[in-house]
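Lab meeting, item 3. Inverse folding demo.
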């Protein structure tokens, strides 16, 4: 039982469910495309002006990441305890989009992305790709994964990303040697899967959030 619980905890880290207490907004990567702490756009139609508003948006993003991780963790822990990793693949396919959708309210869009996606609907756009590449390079240069976050704001939208590292147990589903039976389950659920071949030196992906600011 102790080994099973340990395995479950490791799997939750793999899926981007590490404790969100590591998300300190003061540790946002120096590679960010973001406004300085004392600068903000003029968005008077929404009353979003000044550095305080940017801080509020960052805090809201942080809260949504925490809500996402908490809910998906509960679903995956139950799935793994009852039927194992293969069942967790099915649960993740169904529940992760539902959770993301439930958090995508009040102008927010919440999701996950990666340079190598499992779900083809999560393919990164140009900005996300640039940030993911920077996260990966920074990690390989020795920057702790917990410090890798980025934000961007303009008159149309606020965007936020938080890196998801590759943990040891992630390699069971995303590594260079995936069990053939488990790989079949993955391919059955994700026929366009490209999310294998990862190592511990790679960024697995990132949470990505957008808040629309324009009318």
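The presenter then showed the designed sequence:
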């Amino acid at each position: 039982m102790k080994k099973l619980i340990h395995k479950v905890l490791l799997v939750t880290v793999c899926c981007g469910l590490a404790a969100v207490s590591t998300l300190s907004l003061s540790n946002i990567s120096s590679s960010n495309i973001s406004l300085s702490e004392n600068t903000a756009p003029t968005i008077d139609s929404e009353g979003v002006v000044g550095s305080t508003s940017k801080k509020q948006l960052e805090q809201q993003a942080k809260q949504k990441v925490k809500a996402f991780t908490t809910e998906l963790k509960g679903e995956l822990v139950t799935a793994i305890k009852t039927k194992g990793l293969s069942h967790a693949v099915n649960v993740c396919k169904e529940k992760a989009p539902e959770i993301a959708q439930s958090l995508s309210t009040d102008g927010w869009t919440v999701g996950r992305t990666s340079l190598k996606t499992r779900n083809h609907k999560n393919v990164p756009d140009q900005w996300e790709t640039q940030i993911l590449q920077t996260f990966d390079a920074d990690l390989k240069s020795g920057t702790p994964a917990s410090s890798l976050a980025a934000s961007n704001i303009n008159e149309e939208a606020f965007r936020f990303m938080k890196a998801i590292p590759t943990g040891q147990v992630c390699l069971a589903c995303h590594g260079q040697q995936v069990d053939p039976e488990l790989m079949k389950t993955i391919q059955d659920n994700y026929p366009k899967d490209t999310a294998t071949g990862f190592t511990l030196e790679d960024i697995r992906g990132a949470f990505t959030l957008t808040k629309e600011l324009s009318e």
